[in-house]
TrEMBL record:
This is TRAP transporter small permease protein. It comes from Simplicispira suum. One of its GO terms (cellular component) is plasma membrane. Belongs to the TRAP transporter small permease family. InterPro entries: DctQ (IPR055348), TRAP_DctQ (IPR007387).
């Protein structure tokens, strides 16, 4: 099961990386089109969709690697059951919020598909297409938070230690 979950997180991260590469290509195409005097309709909108996709798809991978911003000032002062209780409370609240975010993101993409909602730009992209990345990213984030909560409840969670703090002055 652990291998499957890690595969899901890594797969979402790979999709996020793909979005970043496509974003780079979209920006380069936009620059080239301005310099060479040809038009690429909707390229700015597609760059925005790719940027959003990259951000949402990377959320779970970032969480599991301990790279999300956490305020640990209070947690570091707590010991024993108080610390575990605070961790459980925080993970429970985050899991609930992630689940709600996932449900409403999926609902938004579905409704955009049902109502045939399109972008207002000249590209007229069906909005459910870029919204799929947001929905997928939030679902994987919710899975990651449930995973973290279950590991904490079982006493097997090892909070990831980011090396970023070591590089700060």
């Amino acid at each position: 099961m652990r291998r499957l979950l890690e595969g899901i997180y890594s797969g979402a991260a790979a999709l996020a990386a793909l979005c970043m590469v496509l974003l780079l290509l979209a920006v380069l195409l936009s620059i080239a089109s301005r310099q060479l005097h040809f038009q690429t309709p909707g390229i700015d909108a597609y760059a925005g969709y790719l940027m959003a996709g990259a951000g949402f798809l990377a959320l779970a991978h970032t969480l599991k690697r301990g790279e999300h911003i956490r305020v640990t000032l209070v947690l570091n002062l707590l010991r024993g059951r108080w610390k575990k209780g605070a961790e459980l409370w925080a993970l429970s609240a985050a899991t609930l919020l992630a689940l709600l975010f996932a449900v409403y993101s999926c609902k938004l993409a579905w409704q955009s598909h049902v109502f045939n909602d399109i972008s207002t730009g000249n590209d007229a992209t069906p909005l459910w297409l870029p919204q799929i990345a947001m929905a997928l990213g939030t679902v994987v984030l919710a899975i990651a938070f449930v995973d973290e909560l279950v590991l904490e409840l079982l006493g097997r969670r090892e909070p990831p230690q980011s090396s970023e703090a070591l590089r700060n002055e």
